[in-house]
């Protein structure tokens, strides 16, 4: 099987699992409305009531860090890996731009990147990668067991091809989550949304939460 065919199959699988998660999120939405209904959400916060759990990871400086410390401020969370050839860099650049748009209006949102590839994404690799995308981006990794806990919390799919050596394309979900301290996940973003979309939705959520 050629590299191109393998890449096509992997991207197709990623699309399939992304569709499954979207169906799950839509099915979880309540019929009621709340103040956040004006924020152009893909799904409301009640959808994510079970997207919670305590965990720890390793940050880009090699230090263990808890979920409370990760989400100590409004956070734009993304899962991927540094060797990703196209999707992850594009999504992270978009997320970084959304954070910058908010910063211009004095809203602070922390961009966080959790690597699903602990074999290759060491803390030093993550440090260089996140610094390239945004000076405030926090890179995180962990053992396979640690990452499984996080993946279960956020319903993330990822798979490393078997017998692939060190040269492989990781199949994974491509959602970004907006997470608030104590309140948890508020909504998710898909790849179709641009930086302005993300910034507008996060700003709307923050305005409402600050006024409650």
State the gist of this model.
The protein has helices at 3-28, 67-70, 87-104, 123-133, 144-154, 195-211, and strands at 56-59, 64-66, 75-80, 110-115, 138-141, 158-159, 171-172, 176-180, 184-189.
Describe the structure.
The protein has 212 residues and is α+β, with helices and mostly antiparallel strands. It has one domain: Glutaredoxin. The protein has six helices and nine strands; from the N terminus they run αββαβαβαβαββββα. The strands form two sheets. The chain has a seven-stranded mixed sheet with strand order 2-1-5-4-3-8-9. It has a two-stranded antiparallel sheet with strand order 6-7. Strand 1 and strand 2 (64-66) form a beta hairpin. Helix 3 (87-104) crosses helix 6. The longest helix is centred in the N-terminal third of the chain and has 26 residues, at 3-28.
Q: Keyphrases for this structure?
A:
212 residues; Glutaredoxin; globular
What is the fold's blueprint, element by element?
Blueprint: H1 3-28, E1 56-59, E2 64-66, H2 67-70, E3 75-80, H3 87-104, E4 110-115, H4 123-133, E5 138-141, H5 144-154, E6 158-159, E7 171-172, E8 176-180, E9 184-189, H6 195-211
Parallel strand pairs: 3-4, 4-5
Antiparallel strand pairs: 1-2, 1-5, 3-8, 6-7, 8-9
């Amino acid at each position: 099987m050629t590299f191109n065919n393998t890449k096509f199959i992997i991207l197709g699988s990623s699309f399939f699992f992304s569709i499954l998660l979207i169906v799950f999120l839509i099915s979880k939405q309540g019929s009621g409305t709340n103040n956040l209904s004006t924020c152009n959400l893909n799904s409301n916060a009640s959808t994510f009531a079970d997207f919670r759990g305590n965990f720890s990871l390793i940050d880009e400086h090699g230090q263990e860090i808890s979920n409370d410390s990760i989400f100590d401020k409004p956070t734009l969370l993304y899962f991927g890996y540094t060797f990703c050839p196209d999707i992850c860099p594009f999504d992270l650049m978009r997320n970084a731009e959304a954070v910058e748009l908010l910063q211009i209006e004095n809203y602070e949102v922390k961009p966080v990147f959790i690597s699903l590839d602990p074999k290759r994404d060491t803390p030093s690799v993550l440090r260089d990668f996140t610094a390239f995308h945004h000076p405030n981006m926090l890179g995180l990794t962990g053992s396979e067991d640690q990452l499984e806990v996080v993946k279960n919390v956020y319903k993330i799919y990822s798979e490393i091809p078997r017998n692939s050596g060190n040269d492989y394309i990781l199949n994974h979900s491509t959602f970004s989550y907006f997470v608030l301290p104590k309140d948890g996940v508020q909504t998710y973003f898909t790849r179709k949304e641009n930086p302005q979309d993300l910034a507008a939705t996060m700003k709307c959520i923050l305005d409402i939460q600050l006024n409650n």
